[in-house]
Amino acid sequence: MRVQKYYVQAVAVLMVCYLTTVLLSACQQKPGKKVDLKNVQVHYRSIRFDRAVFSLDTNQLKATLDQLGNQHPDFAAIYFRELTGFSRTPDEQVFHASLRHFLTFKDYRNLYDSVRIKFPDLKEQDEALKQLFRYVKYYYPKSSYGSVYYFISGLNQWSAVTVDSLVGVGLDMYLGKQYPFYESVQLPFYQIERCEKEYIPVNVCRVIHEDMFPQDAEGKNLLDLMVMKGKQLYFMEHMLPETNEALLIGFTPQQLKWCEQNEGMIWNYFAKQKLLYSTQWQEMLRYVNDGPTSTGMTAESPGNIGSWIGWQIVRQYAEKFPEKTLQEIVADAGNGQQLMERARYKPKAGF
């Protein structure tokens, strides 16, 4: 009877532990899991700034330009000064001449026509961005993102920008990888692969993170940068829970699979080559920035592989400390070494 009683008690204890674990897990906001947004509202509006600009009357340019500036003062100032560069000159006549050229030159008109054909409306993009803003609002209630300006910069490679709480999306950078003129502005092939409309929410999410958490690389080693990028990706997978991992980091499915199969080898390479604590910019940036492949790896490897490893470190850290919220993890002030040690990250070694 004692053995049986002990067995029943043991089962009861195990059941309690199991149920407690399940309940705690349910309470935790796991990466990539959808949350209840029914009470989260954002004041969303989208502006076809591309149409507004190309509707300017070149015969009354100053008057119509002033009207546009009065309607959208914050974004117009950034657009003409930074995104196109037209108003960087103090000479108003030169500025107007540059803008008139932009509005009338056939190559720019053809670019605008390509955007109009590709994006006759933006209902799909608006819905995706509104949902993204709701997730940001859910996790960060004080955020106020909600206004989106769609623009054309003349292939100046502005995919997404933030202007305070305003978001800008450069539609001319999402015309599809078959668009023939991306090569003419010397856009690398691995970036051209991501000139697809599916990347609009991803790129917007990335610039929102950079706006909320400015990334200062000064004085950091490679491991610090890897973890910094890993936090960004951890943030992004929460804000875009229905977006697959390959899209979030800009890998092909094959590249992501290669990383998953060779995680230990990648980590062992960084350790053996004494790269983790390197502060040499040329050594570091090749592993946390875009590129055709990663130096020292096989041809199947993607660029930006250090950011992917940093993502895995942050994920493991989150698993080790389930009581920590997304906000605490993303804002953690610890350096790469500290977070890695607390995560006890050490994948099985490769070669």
Pairing-aware structural class of the strands and helices?
mainly alpha
Q: Please count the beta strands (DSSP E, at least 2 residues each).
A: 4
Beta content comes to 5-15%
Rg result: 24 Å
Terminal CA distance reads 56 Å
Helix content: 40-55%
Q: Tell me the count of domains.
A: 2
Largest sheet entry: 4 strands, mixed
The quaternary structure here is single chain
Number of helices: 17
Spatial order of the strands forming the largest sheet? 1-2-4-3
Low-confidence stretches: 1-31
Give the rounded overall mean pLDDT.
90
Order of helices and strands: HEHHHHHHEEEHHHHHHHHHH
Shape: globular
Q: Could you characterize the architecture of this molecule?
A:
By secondary structure, the chain is mainly α. The protein folds into two domains: 168 residues, no CATH class; 122 residues, no CATH class. Helix content is 55%, strand content 5%. The chain is built from 17 helices and four strands. Strands 1-2-4-3 form a four-stranded mixed sheet, with helices on both faces. α10 packs across α17. The longest helix is centred in the first third of the chain and has 26 residues. The chain is globular and about 70 Å long.
What would the keywords be for this entry?
single chain, 351 residues, mainly alpha, 2 domains, 4-stranded mixed β-sheet, 17 helices, 4 strands, disordered N terminus
